[in-house]
Amino acid sequence: MEELKNHIINYNEAVISISGLYKSFGDLDVLKGIDFELFKGENVAILGKSGTGKSVLIKIIIGLLKPDKGEVIVLGKHVDKLERKELDTLRLRIGFSFQNSALYDSMNVYQNLAFPLTMNIKNLSKNQVKNEVEEVLEAVGLEDKINQLPSDLSGGQRKRIGIARTLILKPEIMLYDEPTSGLDPVTSEEIIELINDVQEKYNTSSIIITHDLTCAKNTGNRTAMLLDGRFFKIGTFDEVFDTEDEQVKGFYNYNFIQ
Amino acid sequence: MATFTNRKYIFSKGIDQYFIGVKSAYSFVALFFKEAFKRPFHFREVLNQSFEVGLKSLPLITLTGFIVGVVFTKQSRPSLEDFGAASWLPSLIGIAIVRALGPLVTALICAGKVGSSIGAELGSMKVSEQIDAMEVSAINPFKYLVVTRVLATTITIPVLAMYCSCVGLYGSYVNVHAEETTSLVTFYQSAFSSISFLDIFTSVAKAIIYGFTIGIVGAYKGFNATQGTRGVGKAANQAVVLSMFLIFLEELVIVQVANWIRYF
Ligand SMILES: Nc1ncnc2c1ncn2[C@@H]1O[C@H](COP(=O)(O)OP(=O)(O)OP(=O)(O)O)[C@@H](O)[C@H]1O
Ligand SMILES: [Mg+2]
Fold it and tell me: What's the whole-number mean pLDDT along residues B233-238?
């Protein structure tokens, strides 16, 4: 499976490149010198304890938060220096799946999925919209939920609809914020498969934020460990955990104690 | 490192925060006027929201307007009779309701019903990251959520205020009719005979300003909600309190201005 994935990765073309990134909130220094590259076609899993700034990092990548210092280049553009219009054009090429799914709770599943499409692409016929919605629903395996409200879905189903909502705009980069947190192992496994399917089917490059080692191991071509505002190590899963560092070992042991 | 220096307060924490609040509210209003006249216009959503505003408050406005008309008439009659001026009753009621009570009662009811629901709705969208979700799908949430709602209240509340005045006059008529036999047409005629074009114009202008206030305050409080579910309740609550306060303030200013116009 690794080989199959690897041959589509282009390690000469970075789709995201970050250097010297700092971010703090008031007195709280969250990111303290991040250097990172995501290459075309690869999945990188970012691991880290709760509160280390994983969500903050990808929110900076998509321009929801501004960096205090440093360079963030996504698909060749300096994200923090873009005008609203250019930023929107860039955002259409990036999918962002929220930690809490963030589905529009006044809309049903169909409307949730159709909304980004109809708001961004004018003059789509009803049938075209319907086809697109059905296609992504099929990709996440929830065709039968099309008329339900988000409040009637389970947590795992909401996550999958959240992912479907980002897929509908056919992004080149996917940012997953804790896709498997709070899910049972079987559902987690389904989401992991979905992430890998998306990588192959839509040829995306992805960042998968997680504190679930199984998810990191099975989705990431590379793994990055965020410790204390910096990347402790970026490499294959085994490389990252081949260490004597107490904190990293603690993270590993805790996860596999079950 | 420069980026990590603590921020020092210019005056004190409270005063600084007050001015920061004023500045952010000001930018919010300025942003509304900037975005409201730029494409794309979400006409459909404005229409939907207008229906929401209207349907939400119509029953309560009908009831309250009617009661205000009845009670106000009942209270005024004895004093007027003491002066032998009972025949002025319809004119007095007409002036009181069209100039002051109709718009004010409508505005206060809508501040409670509509303002709080805009605050709560946008607040919960904010804390559950639905607003961020629009943002990352390249949809401008300010345009889609704020501009549409503020336009809806600004358009709908004047209509509701006119309606409230009419219902109030009807309530008054019902009370008058119980005491003496007047026809509805005669009553409305004498009520409106004392009302000038300026009265109706100010009344509508007032309601437009109240409508804008209710929409923008609710949206501002909701859009800036923090702290999870508690923040949502706080946003709804503050939306009502602040918009009611501003409505009274505006009433005061507009009455002054209208009086100047009247006498010059
Ligand atoms: N908008 C904000 N304002 C102030 N502080 C913030 C903001 N966003 C995040 N923080 C703080 O930054 C730190 C990192 O937050 P972040 O959400 O990135 O953590 P995380 O690594 O994603 O954790 P988790 O695994 O629990 O999701 C936290 O201490 C949080 O309190
Ligand atoms: Mg997070």
Answer: 92
Type of residue numbered B37: F
Which has the closest alpha carbon to A136: A197, A189, A76?
A197
B interface test, pick of A56, A66, A89, A105 with most B CB neighbours within 10 Å: A105
State how far the Cα of A10 lies from the Cα of A151, in Å rounded to an integer. Answer: 41
Instruction: Give domain status of residue B199, yes or no.
Output: yes
Whether B170 is in a domain gets the answer yes
Task: Say yes or no: A168 contacts chain B, CB-CB below 8 A.
Answer: no
The reply to whether B214 falls in a domain is yes
Q: Which of residues 131-150 of B touch A (CB under 8 A)?
A: 132-133, 135-140, 144
Is B129 an 8 Å CB contact of chain A? yes
Of A64, A69, A116, the CB nearest to B139: A116
| pLDDT score for B85 | 81
* Nearest residue in B to A114, CA atom: B137
Query: Is the pLDDT confidence value at B83 over 90?
Result: no
Residue A141, number of CB atoms within 10 A of its CB? 15
* B32 occurs within a structural domain: no
What's the pTM value of the predicted model, to 2 decimals? 0.88
Taking CB atoms and a 6 Å cutoff, what residues make up the pocket around ligand 1? A 25, 28, 30, 48, 50-56, 99, 211
Residue with tokens 């995306």: A204
pLDDT at A258: 44
β-pairing verdict for A205-210 and A173-177 = parallel
**Preceding omega of A179 cis (within 30 degrees of 0):** no
Whole-number pLDDT of residue B5: 45
The pLDDT tens digits for A39-49 are 998 999 998 88
Q: What is the pLDDT of residue A254?
A: 65
A7 touches chain B (CB under 8 A): no
- Picking from B136, B149, B226 by the largest number of A CB atoms within 10 A of its own CB, the best residue to mutate is B136
If one counts the domains in chain B, the total is 1
Domain range for residue B245?
39-263
ipTM: 0.89
